[in-house]
TrEMBL record:
Highest taxon, organism lineage: Bacteria
Protein name: GTPase Der
Alphabetized InterPro entries for the sequence: G_ENGA, GTP-bd, GTPase_Der, KH_dom-like, KH_dom-like_a/b, P-loop_NTPase, Small_GTP-bd
GO annotation terms (biological process): ribosome biogenesis
Quaternary state and interactors: Associates with the 50S ribosomal subunit.
Annotated PROSITE patterns: G_ENGA
Amino-acid positions noted as binding GTP 2 in the UniProt annotation, renumbered to this chain: 196-203, 248-252, 313-316
A Pfam family this chain is assigned to: MMR_HSR1
GO MF annotation: an example: GTP binding
Known role: GTPase that plays an essential role in the late steps of ribosome biogenesis.
Binding annotation for GTP 1: 9-16, 56-60, 119-122
Length: 466
């Protein structure tokens, strides 16, 4: 296990910028306005070979615990549990503030090594704040510019005495694991993203799965901004322990309604999370049913080639005046999905409740099954036997009396499954016949509702002029 280092500080001191600098990617959303980060975000950091897990946290604010800033601060406090070190970041240009001093008093009560980091210390404008940071009581502060990468070597010098011993233990563990059976290393964790409109209950559902308040929730719509990945182990109904990487995403509204810069960044981050995922769960709100925006999100997931499942959340309210007849709602959504997503019929549909836990085990079990189909490869011989039978049952048409010859098919790739059909005059093949082949692949070869790509390829005519 890698050591864990937490970044803590008041809003707008550059915590997320430092996080992005240490992980080497722009994972966390960054903006000039304070309070952008709301949930804890983890990443793999490395400085001169020193590897550790870095955790970005929400800005610490002195607000009532029931408010959104107060709940954000509670998440930051919880993040220190089990951590190996903390980076207390201040703004060197602004100097120490009363809130910085309050955070420092709280950190001194915690049993964790703390390194004071004076960020925005490029040039001489941050000298005064750097000198003030000595009064915090955490030893010599590290002068740093997260935006420009200055002072990272000094941060290494401060961190290594605290977490450097983990590096030797991890190296020994890696050497001990070299003799393990390679088959044990083949399957990685299921990358499962939860997407949907704002306030559908995505963060609440993940918290229910984890059994803890890991993600910030509340009645306010649009609380989640960053796409947050959480590694978790699920024990299935058969008692098998399975690894899952749960990915929470920001709610996606209609494009015309997204005018705020931060919301645009959040939606873009959610789209990147979909591209990273293997299976995507589109979460609907039972109190609102299926809306056009849900279909747009589903179409985007399918176009990206991800395996898609639909879950109707807040099913504990089914039968109430707000929801109405439960079976009619379920069947209505199922029919609307088949009509609105003709390219992938029969998507897995589940009734779940983040409040009670209803249906979550069945949903996760199906997620592993659909990943298997998404990753499946069909032997070429079996594939062409099916292909010959499909052509015999329904031969391709002959537009204007010209025969279309389909010769053979191969599977070009998986995740999503991609097939190439070879033949002549394929530019004349109707789209309806392509759909016939795609539907046959799904139904007969075990791909179910997985998005399938079929490419038509004709041999190049050597006598044709360029």
């Amino acid at each position: 296990m890698k050591p864990t280092v937490i970044i803590i500080g008041r809003p707008n001191v550059g915590k997320s910028t430092l996080f992005n600098r240490l992980v080497g990617k722009k994972l966390a959303l960054v903006d000039d306005q304070p309070g952008v980060t709301r949930d804890r975000r983890m990443g793999d950091a490395v400085i001169a070979g020193l590897e550790f897990t870095i955790v970005d946290t929400a800005g610490w604010e002195d607000e009532d615990a029931a408010t959104l800033p107060g709940r954000m601060r509670k998440q930051t406090e919880v993040s220190l549990e089990g951590a190996d070190a903390a980076l207390f970041v201040i703004d060197a240009r602004a100097g120490l503030t009363p809130l910085d001093e309050e955070i420092a008093r709280w950190l001194r009560t915690q049993e964790i090594p703390v390194i004071a980091v004076a960020n925005k210390a490029e040039g001489r404008a941050g000298d005064a704040g750097l000198y003030e940071a000595f009064s915090l009581g955490f030893g010599e502060p590290v002068a740093l510019s997260a935006e420009h990468g200055e002072g990272v070597a000094d941060l290494f010098d401060a961190l290594y005495p605290i977490i450097g011993s983990f590096e030797d233990e991890r190296a020994a563990s890696d050497r001990a694991g070299e003799a393990r059976d390679p088959d044990d290393l083949e399957l990685g964790p299921l990358k499962l993203a939860i997407v949907g409109r704002p306030n559908a209950g995505k963060s609440t559902l993940i918290n229910r799965l984890l059994g803890e308040d890991r993600l910030l929730t509340g009645p306010e719509a649009g609380i989640t901004r960053d796409s947050i990945a959480v590694d978790w182990q699920w024990t299935d109904p058969d008692g098998e322990v399975r690894d899952i990487r749960l990915i929470d995403t920001a709610g996606m509204r209609k494009r015309a309604q997204v005018v705020d810069k931060l919301e645009k960044l959040s939606v873009a981050d959610a789209k990147r999370a979909i591209d990273f995922a293997e299976v995507v769960v589109l979460l609907l709100d039972a109190t609102r049913g299926l809306e056009h925006q849900d279909l747009k999100i589903a179409s985007m997931v399918i176009e990206e080639g991800r395996a898609l499942m639909i879950a109707i959340n807040k099913w504990d309210m089914a039968g109430s005046e707000q929801v109405g007849d439960a079976s009619r709602l379920f069947n209505g959504i199922k029919a609307a999905l088949d009509d609105g997503l003709a390219q992938v019929r029969g998507l897995p549909l589940f009734a779940v409740s983040a409040k009670t836990g209803k249906g979550l085990d069945q949903m996760l079990k199906a997620a592993f099954e659909i990943r298997e189909a998404w990753s499946k490869r069909v032997p070429t011989a079996a594939l062409n036997r099916w292909f010959d039978d499909a052509l015999e049952a329904n031969p391709p048409p002959a537009p204007k009396g010209k025969r279309i010859k389909l010769r053979y098919i191969t599977q070009a790739g998986t995740r999503p499954p991609r097939f190439v059909v070879f033949g002549t005059r394929l530019d004349m093949l109707p789209k309806s016949y392509e759909r016939y082949l795609v539907n046959g692949i799904r139904k007969e070869l075990g791909f179910d509702a997985v998005p399938v790509r079929v490419v038509l390829k004709s041999p190049k005519n050597p006598y044709a002029k360029d």
